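Sat 14:20. Reprocessing the chain from the morning session after the first attempt stalled halfway. Input below, unchanged.
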Amino acid sequence: MKKVSVLALSLMAAAYISAAQASDGTVTFTGLIKSQTCTANSPVVILPELGTGALTTAAQVAGEMTFNIDLTDCSPATGNVYAYFEQGANVNANGRLNNTGAATNVDLQLLDKAKSPINIGTADQTSSATTVPLANGQASLPYSARYYATGPVTAGSVASSVTFSIVYL
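Finished this time. Tokens:
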């Protein structure tokens, strides 16, 4: 009886495995790898020097500095674009940039051209993107960066970086 049950189970398992491996269709993938569609500068933003008294409590901001990401040689030469700031090692869970310098309790916060905070590395950037039109294959994307206190800031250097991709609409 025990041998029959084991044999019956083995036959049922084999039938089940065969049914699970049936081929019902094909998924086909296509794509295109293109050369870079715009030339973008990589700005270096120098924030102003501040005293620790400017950032004494969490959520205080100071030292805003405007910068542009300039695009040239874009193909197509018309349409709308924006920069998507990507999640990376320097981006924290709050969508701000971690300070890799010696000062403590300070992040860097990016702002769009309307001065609204950018939640770096999230879908929020795509759902509320502030776009700029391309004109003759060129555009200048305005952004700002500022210090953001996470507590009483201590003196020291502030540094960070973020990778961006240009999104074409």
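The first helix runs from residue 2 to 20.
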